[in-house]
Amino acid sequence: MQSMAATGRAIDRRRYAAWRRLSWRRLAALLAALAGVVYLAVLAGIYVFQERLIFRPEPLPASYRFVLADVQERRIDVGGATLSALHLQLPDPRGVVFFLHGNSGNLATWLTDTELYRAANYDLFMIDYRSYGKSSGRIESEAQLRADVLAAWRTVAPQYAGKRRVIYGRSLGTALATGLAAEVQPDLTILVSPYCSMAQLMHEQYPLLPTALLRYPLATCLDASQLRSPLLLVHGEADALIPIEHSEQLLAVAPQAMLLRLPGAGHADLHRFRAYTEALLTTLKTL
């Protein structure tokens, strides 16, 4: 009897152990399935809502007034929206700098000092993308964004026939500036804190996310390879957001380019460095 009882207990223990192993496998499978669902949900959210991740607009009320000497506010009608622009106009300029800013802020935060352009004797034309500042509408695709930039260029460029025409891009705006420059071939393109492509930047910062999700590839290097006119690259050696290696890649695909390295400069503070101001001033004056 005792032997039978012991045998029964042994069988019960084996059954319990088998049940526990099965329960852990079921739990692991359930957790893996949940993780998969969460991952797919994250991917879907990134694909659908990536405008919120890439663009950080800061709207301004319609009543807002820009107060800068010699700077006029302009409006540019594009498909389904109106872009806000500022135009610094000097008495007899050597040319114009068409400026495409980064992914945050608005004209009120980007155009605060015009002394550099006055010293170089260049007009300045700067736009806010859709939903930025006083611009209406919202960004819906890269094609739309590029079309808006081209429309703004075509609004101002004819006023400077026979003068120097410069396209300037900063951070996010560098891809847009390069794409525009590849199409219109200005006298000079200036890219400050550029990236080779948004896909490459995404892979570097979020290696677990497939770049196929990206609806804004913004291939700066590809467009730079089509540039035939001078290209000035400016990059901070301490830039933690967009490493200087991106500018080095641009230098490799555009042999006519020059790269100004700024030791100690990060991503958002380059304009505070004297070497930056001196390089831009010299380049514009000698163009």
Features:
287 residues, alpha/beta, two-stranded parallel sheet, 9 helices, 10 strands, 44% helix, globular
Task: Please outline the helices and strands.
Elements: H1 2-54, E1 56-57, E2 71-78, E3 81-88, E4 95-100, E5 104-105, H2 107-110, H3 115-120, E6 122-127, H4 142-156, E7 164-170, H5 173-184, E8 188-192, H6 198-205, H7 220-224, E9 231-236, H8 245-253, E10 257-262, H9 274-286
Parallel strand pairs: 1-5, 4-6, 4-7, 7-8, 8-9, 9-10
Antiparallel strand pairs: 2-3, 3-6
Helix pairs in contact: 4-5
Task: Walk me through the structure.
With 287 residues, the protein is an alpha/beta fold. Helices cover 44% and strands 20% of the residues. The chain has nine helices and ten strands. The strands form two sheets. An eight-stranded mixed sheet has the order 2-3-6-4-7-8-9-10, sandwiched between helices. Helix 5 links the parallel strand 7 and strand 8. Helix 4 packs across helix 5. The longest helix has 53 residues. The chain is globular.
